[in-house]
User: Fold this.
Amino acid sequence: MRFGPLVVTFLTGAVLIAIFFIPHHRAQETQSVILEWADIVYTFALVLGSISLWAMHQKKVQQKGEGWIYSVVTLVALLGVTAFGVIQGVEAGTVVGRIYNMVNAPLASTMFSLLAFFIASAAFRAFRARNVEATLLLVTAIVMMVGRVSVGEFVWKGFPPLTEWLLDVPNLAAKRAVAIGIGLGAISTALKIILGIDRSYLGRS
Amino acid sequence: MPALDTWVAALLTLCVFSFLYRDNPLYRFAEHLFVGASAGYLLAVQYQNVLRPNVIDKIGHGNLLPLVPLAMGILILGRMWERTSGMARWSLAFYVGIYSGIAVPSYLQAQIFAQLADAVKPFEPGWGAVNSGLVLLGFLSVLAYFYFSSPHGGIHGIAARVGIWFLMVAFGASFGYTVMARVSLLIARMQFLLRDWLHILPSV
Amino acid sequence: MAAGRNGFWQRILGIDRRWIFLLVGIGTALPLIFPVNLPVAASPRVKAAYNAIEAVPEGSRVLMSLDYEPDIMAELQPMSIAVLRHCFRRHLTPIILTLYPAGPGLIERALAVASTAEGAKNYQDYVFLGYKSGNQAVVLGLGENIKGLFPKDFYGASTDSITLMRHVNSFTDFPLLIDLSGSTIADYYIRIGASRYHRPMILGATAVMATDYYPYLSSRQILGLIGGMKGAAEYERLMGIVGDARRGMDAQSLVHVIVVILVLLGNAALFATGGIKPRIGGGS
Assistant:
């Protein structure tokens, strides 16, 4: 049951690598078709995720678990938005378009904006100069927070050029090494998957 | 935005902000509504933008090729049951193989070769050479830090320690920018509440 | 005496975090209601992005990918409006698309603001292709066949029939790529558009991501970088306009100062108490 999928992985991976080097339009069209198929498969993965979400909340409602009334809200929202979206579409002017502007957009923005409060509280509680490394991190963070906003220049004219130097020299050096490390890691993982050395994505046998 | 929509958006915003005081039913309602509405929206968008034009419409016009990815997509759903979960491996293998194949040459070109080429260029003239030297030193020392195949001792250990210092400066810069990012999101919500809902700020 | 001092610092460190939340909330709201209008100076990287657009010959088409959703629109929407206005002022024609499903609504709003301000019209001064699912797959496709990916634009018109889309069908037909993104989509454009197809590119990113792209600036894979709401404010300053980004800078400054004071206070307490752990009180 695993040999066939391993062959599929090898073939698709090898073909996509080869297509990178073949500028002929037939090769590029083949790539477009393959990638379109991948998008369709991804859509079903989303369907699977939504079914899992539904099942989890439905079980909670059936068993009257703790907070089951909120699960009803999730189920109604999931079913309603999906149904309206499939039938009517999702553009501005549709029911889903309106729900998006009233519900999804403000809730998403606000959830993320909570982080501003938590980051301030966490910085107060946990950001300590306990050793040389932590002090470096703390001092750089403070210089960046003050220097990158308008008030920084009022405090000291040297703040903006200092922040630019920190970004252009030590930050660049470290992030370049991190980028190369990530690149090497990604390539080695990809090759291990294509060659069948890493089979973790297939799950348990 | 119509007034009703603005009021609903503002009240939901306040429901989420109420979490700052303590966890409460209003927040939990907003949270669960968000989960359901987001999942539903994603499904609807994928149906309208992927399934309908690339599968349903094409099959409807007599093109049977989309039956292949459709079959692979249905195989993925086999993961819901223990007995059929093995079938999903074919679809996963296809998907994982594609993006692994794309990753190899593009990472090599854009992240390895391009960055290495920029790392070994000549130093800037004059005082810029100090900065160029520091960038090269930082780059090599951070690479030394990430090399874990031998213990960090001797010269390797010294280089790794210098690398940690460069990493701490980079993380400090990232932290500063992260604070900036989070505060920006809060500013936008405040602008919405004060301008669009309460009309305390002038409209633009 | 020492016990008294320690008790003071203990109380400082044990403060209920909801007071900190309130301080941050007030620090955000007050400068919005009572603006001071602190000046905003443009940084070199934002100037470089601005100059990259200035260098594009008038009448050229530029490819703009606006990839963000409401959760990060605070940083990227003002950026989009400012860059769109710049393109319209320079008589450049942006061909706009998005890889985020919730992007079209926001882009329509940005286009409404920018086109009204600069007198730009759809199909004469810009084309909005809409959303396409697939992320990296779409970026790869942009290198080969844009009209194949987008047979119709966002409003349903056939891209073959749009005059502005004549002679543009891949990355190589654009003198400049502009990506305003809050995710790894920026990496796809750098790897594919800028590196593989050697297109000049400028990037607008959220502040969280911005520091990670400095290596690409150094290697000239991207020519300019607009980072976060501050970057958007700097771009607005270069354009001579006042948008939501510039309006938010006073609040940004005050909250940053609050956070820095809190950090310094916490560290002062650490040194004053010799590293004694505080009793944390209150909060949820």
Notes: Chain C touches chain B through 50 residues (CB under 8 Å).
